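Model it.
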Amino acid sequence: MPSRLINWFRFGSPQSFYPLAGRLVPWFTAIAVLTGAAGLWVGFFVAPTDAQQGEAYRIIFVHVPAAWMSMFLYVIMAFWAGVGLAFNTRLSAMMAHAIAPTGAMFTFLALWSGALWGRPTWGAYWVWDARLTSELVLFFLYLGYMALNAAIDDPRRADRAAAVLALVGVVNVPIIYFSVQWWNTLHQGASVSLTRAPSMAMTMLTGMLLMAIAFWMYGLAVVLARVRAIMLEREAHTDWARELKEVGQ
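Modeled.
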């Protein structure tokens, strides 16, 4: 057992993690394409029409998984940022930086698709609802993290400053999740919960879960591809990075 742990810990080095990430990217990409195609097919062509919202509800097959990913990726980003801040590990900070743009993209997608859903449902593209507002704050936190990191020339100082912002911003994630329970909001409650049966048809749930898997696999593929680019940029002074650049990998 100890020897196996040592083997896993070696991937904490950028030099060891770089080829592993490269091997994983095509697999995650393929799974994302397959599950995404299946999820869209089920969501838009197989799932029944909602009795109350009609066809407009189908935006949930994009909106809900995007919202899940926006929150989950922020927690993972903050985790890696915290590990880097606590242990001064190079790869941890790189992982946090690689996650931020993808998290911001999913947050924007959740806000944009929510606006399209809100127009026929609430009669407005935007309302200052507790969940919508806290999700918008999450988007600004992602942007602030990336902007702060880019504004400081010294990478080590930038890592520390951005990590503090990421850790402080984590408090917003439970606010987003529990906002519909803590306040009287227009946003509907969760249709999927770990503590009770889902309040939707099984085909709807299947489509949503397939899209969630697709978004998760896409996120992994993009983050791993981005962290490889960050590694080459930050480790440009090392022999292994120079050799990879020379052979064009």
